[in-house]
Amino acid sequence: MSAITIKISNHCVSFPNMFLLKQIQYHKVFCKLCHHRYCTTYVNKLFSSNNSNLFSRDAASNRHDFINNISYSTLKYCSNLAFVPRHEPCSNRHIEDLQEFVDNSKKLFVLTGAGISTESGIPDYRSEGVGLYATSTKRPVQIKEFISNASVRQSYWARNYVGWSRFSSFKPNITHITLAQWEQHGKVSHIVTQNVDTLHQKAGSINVTELHGSLHDVRCMQCQYSISRTQFHHTLSSLNPRMAAQSQDIRPDGDVELVQDDVSRFVVPCCPSCGGFLKPHVVFFGDNVPRARVEAVKEQLRQSDALLALGSSLQVYSAYRFILYAAELKLPMAAVNIGLTRADAHLSLRVPARCGHVLPLITLR
C-alpha cells in the first residue's frame, strides 16, 4: 500500500493547501487529514483531467457537485462518519442561501453542538439511528446521583479512566478548522459550544465559551482545588496499576461500558487539599450553567449581528435560551443541522446537511 501526496492550488474537498491521499485498497483511497474515503474512480478522474480549478476559492459549486458524487455507501464506512445520521445531499440552493447569510454578517456569533464533533468520531446523544439514546439504554450520570452516591462516582471515574486515552486523542475536523479560520479573518466574533471536548481550541479558535465546561479539567466540589485531567489520569493510573479493562466503544462524554468487577476494584482519590470528592469541570445533567457564564454569553450576543447554530437540535434549554435572546435582539439566525431543531420557528434558514460538508463550501468575501 503506497501513500501519495498531491498538492493542489487551494482546496481539497475538506482541507486547504493539499489533498493527502493514501491507498488502502485497490479501489479506495482516503484523505489522511479528514479521513473521508473516496472511490479511486472519482480521484483518478479528478487528477487525470488536471482540473485544479475544482478547488479554487470561486469554485464552491463544483466542489459541492464532486462531494455529492461520492455515494453515501462509500462515506458511511469512514470511521469518522460512523455517528453521522443518514441524510440527503445538500442542495445548491441551501449553499447559496447560507453563503448570503454569512456574507451579510460582520460579527457572527456561532453556537455549536455535538453534531459538529460526530465527524471527529465522537457520538452524540440525540442523532437519529446512531446517537446514544437510539443505540443504548444507558443514560448519562445525573448530578444528584454523582453527589450523593460514592458508588456512582466510582463507576463514573472507572469508565472515564478507560475511555480517556481515546477521548483525549480525538482531533478537530474540518468544521472546527473552518471556524478557526473564520475567526482569524474577523468573520466570527465568538463561539459558544455545548461540547466538552475542547476541539475548538485544538483547531485554533480563541474566543470560545464552553457552555457546559470541559472534560479536560477536574475540580473539587468542596474547595477551589483543580487539576488537569491529564495529570489526574496519572494519579488514577498509579492508584489502579492492575486496571487493564479496554473498550472499543465510546460515549458522548468520554466514558465507556465496564463490567462490575472492573468498577468495584477501582480506587478513586479524594481531594488532596480538603478530602472532598473530585468531579470533571462539566455541567452534569440536572445541573445548571453558572449564571455569570450565561450573562457573559449574552453580552457576546449583544455585540454580534447574526447567530449561526451548527450541529445542534437545540433541545436543551441551556443553549436554546440564546436563540430566544437573539430573537429579542431581532438578530437574523440560521442553522446547519441534519435534523429539525427546537429553534426552527425562529430561523430564517436551516440547512439540513452535515456541517463538514457545508462549511468548506462557504467562502469569505
From TrEMBL:
Principal location listed in the UniProt entry: mitochondrion
Localization annotation: Mitochondrion matrix
Reported cofactor(s): Zn(2+)
Residues the record lists as binding NAD(+): 113-133, 194-197, 311-313, 337-339, 355
Molecular function terms from GO: histone deacetylase activity, NAD-dependent; NAD+ binding; zinc ion binding
Record note on cofactor: Binds 1 zinc ion per subunit.
Residues where Zn(2+) binds: 220, 223, 271, 274
InterPro entries: DHS-like_NAD/FAD-binding_dom, NAD-dep_sirtuin_deacylases, Sirtuin, Sirtuin_cat_small_dom_sf, Sirtuin_class_II, Ssirtuin_cat_dom
Broad EC category: transferase
Enzyme Commission code(s) on record: 2.3.1.-
PROSITE patterns assigned to the protein according to its UniProt record, in alphabetical order: SIRTUIN (PS50305)
Name of a matching Pfam family: SIR2
Classification via CDD domains: SIRT4
This protein's GO CC annotations: mitochondrial matrix
Active-site residues (renumbered): 212
Ranges for domain Deacetylase sirtuin-type: 88-365
Residues spanning the signal sequence: none
SUPFAM superfamilies, A to Z: DHS-like NAD/FAD-binding domain
Keywords recorded for this protein, A-Z: Metal-binding, Mitochondrion, NAD, Transferase, Zinc
Recorded catalytic activity of this chain's protein: N(6)-acetyl-L-lysyl-[protein] + NAD(+) + H2O = 2''-O-acetyl-ADP-D-ribose + nicotinamide + L-lysyl-[protein]
UniProt family annotation: Belongs to the sirtuin family. Class II subfamily.
Known role: NAD-dependent protein deacylase. Catalyzes the NAD-dependent hydrolysis of acyl groups from lysine residues.
Name used for this protein in its record: NAD-dependent protein deacylase
Species name: Hirondellea gigas
